[in-house]
Amino acid sequence: SFCILVANRHAPSLHSRPLEAQSHHQATMDFIDAPAAVSPMAMEDPFASAGPGGGDFSGSDPFAGMPSGGESAGAPGGEATALRAWEEQHNRELEDMSAKETDGKNKNKNKAAEDLKAWNEERATTNQKRLNSNRTAQKSAEAAKDDSVKGLNPWELVASLIDTKGDAAKENTFRDTSRMRALLIQLKTSPIGTL
């Protein structure tokens, strides 16, 4: 085969060839080893032979048999107009849907802005009411504290802040606060000093 001959062209022959086969083999080797004789003109432009004079077109239009205009190649006129009508109707439907969506978005934005404004007003009103009630409660607590301290033993005020009647041993098993409780009760009844 030819591939074997090309691959083994320098290998020694393992069997004897007839004279005709050897000359054929030599001719093949000469063809492979010899560079191709190509003209420089053919190397530059492979389509030079098919130039303007190479073919006879005689001014005919190659697209003369093709349909032209807006018609599709395989659709008759009735199908094209039905398709165009459907496309126009579909485009109108899409535009209507887009307009409805835009209107819905605008309505939702306006409603959200109104709701947010109402919520902010309600929050401001609630905060103001809470602030006023806290100020009133603080003023009344300070007035009550001042009234309770006047002429009273300060240890009575301290004793009023703790539970003097409970059993300390039952409430807290880790700390014994009975001594402190007894001391506060003693100071309440017989104060060391007054304000």
UniProtKB/TrEMBL annotation:
Domain of life: Eukaryota
Biased composition (Basic and acidic residues): 85-124
One Pfam family per UniProt: Clathrin_lg_ch
Residue span of region Disordered: 48-149
Membrane topology qualifier: Peripheral membrane protein
InterPro entries: Clathrin_L-chain
Subcellular locations according to the entry: Cytoplasmic vesicle membrane; Membrane, Coated pit
PROSITE patterns: CLATHRIN_LIGHT_CHN_2
Start-end of Gly residues biased regions: 67-77
GO process annotations (BP): clathrin-dependent endocytosis; intracellular protein transport
Polar residues bias (residue ranges): 125-139
Main location: membrane
Single GO cellular component term: clathrin coat of coated pit
Record's keyword terms, sorted: Coated pit, Cytoplasmic vesicle, Membrane
GO function terms (MF aspect): clathrin heavy chain binding; structural molecule activity
Family: Belongs to the clathrin light chain family.
Task of the protein: Clathrin is the major protein of the polyhedral coat of coated pits and vesicles.
PANTHER family, per the entry: CLATHRIN LIGHT CHAIN
Protein name as it appears in the record: Clathrin light chain
Annotated organism of origin: Spumella elongata
